[in-house]
Amino acid sequence: MPAALESPLSSIVQLLTVLLIFVFVLVITAFATRWIANYQRDKAPGENITIVETKRISQNKLIEILRIGDRYFAVALGKDEVTFISEISPDSLHFPEKTGEPFSFKDLLNKAKNDGDK
């Protein structure tokens, strides 16, 4: 049917259908991402190696502080190499105090929505 002969109601129904499918795909993606994250977190055998902090120093170079067991190390990462810098004493590191609840995307979205209404 030519576009000139379509009714406005048909166009609105098509738009709503596409929007509903889009929202459905977003919801499924959010649940799948959360499920995979929980699955990977539960499958991790231990937390012996963790990245404490990362700082980019140039386009292809990073400095990372790693915790391996109860010792801390500084390493430099390049495109094709990893260079040991030094061991760091835990007393010289500053860990931010955990305040409040963990980050929630839902709360952030609601805050943005409420700020937009003002």
Fill in the keyword field for this structure.
single chain; alpha+beta; elongated
Structural class: alpha+beta
Number of domains: 2
Please state the CA-atom Rg, rounded to the nearest Å: 24 Å
Q: What shape does the CA trace take? A: elongated
Summed up, the helix count is 2
Number of DSSP strand runs: 4
Largest sheet: 4 strands, antiparallel
SSE arrangement, N to C: HEEEEH
Spatial separation of the terminal alpha carbons: 44 Å
**Percentage of residues in strands:** 25-35%
pLDDT averaged residue by residue? 85
How are the strands of the biggest sheet laid out side by side? 1-2-3-4
* Range of helix content: 40-55%
Q: Indicate the low-confidence ranges by residue numbers.
A: none
Describe the structure.
This protein is α+β, with helices and mostly antiparallel strands and 118 residues long. The protein has 2 domains: 1-44; 47-95. It has 2 helices and 4 strands. It has a 4-stranded antiparallel beta sheet with strand order 1-2-3-4, with no helix packed on it.
In short:
It is built from two helices and four strands, in the order H-E-E-E-E-H. The chain has helices spanning 8-43, 105-117; strands spanning 49-58, 61-68, 71-77, 82-88.
Topology diagram in text:
Elements: H1 8-43, E1 49-58, E2 61-68, E3 71-77, E4 82-88, H2 105-117
Antiparallel strand pairs: 1-2, 2-3, 3-4
